[in-house]
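WARN retry 2 of 3 for item q-0093 after timeout on previous attempt; input resubmitted unchanged.
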Amino acid sequence: MAQSVPYTMALQFSVNGIQVVSASLSAADNTSHSYVDTIATGTVNQPTRLAFAAEEVQAYILYSDQNVTIDVNSTSAPLPAISLTAKSPLVYIAGAGMTSLFTTDVTEMFVSNASGQPANVTIEVLVHGSV
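OK item q-0093 returned
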């Protein structure tokens, strides 16, 4: 679901006191697509109802407290298939020297949980402009 939310995503990284990467994005000129849910163990292909244009992605964070799989656009031939490791967020910020996982427009994302425990999943995608 697209919504406007007041937050800023920032990344700073320094080595020996020398700033290597610094990037910051505000939601002021962007729109957030959010999915937050608890996925029961054994769930296969829970739809998220998230859709956005790949070229508009400014930042994202994908997080789960259990190992889950996220299939993008298709459950039979996902592009990409994302294996999300428990408590290890996947983060992207445009302009910070990172490569986005999303290279084609996203029409849907599907979450599967075979971890043996309920998974608390959060997906936040910040896209340029309003949708």
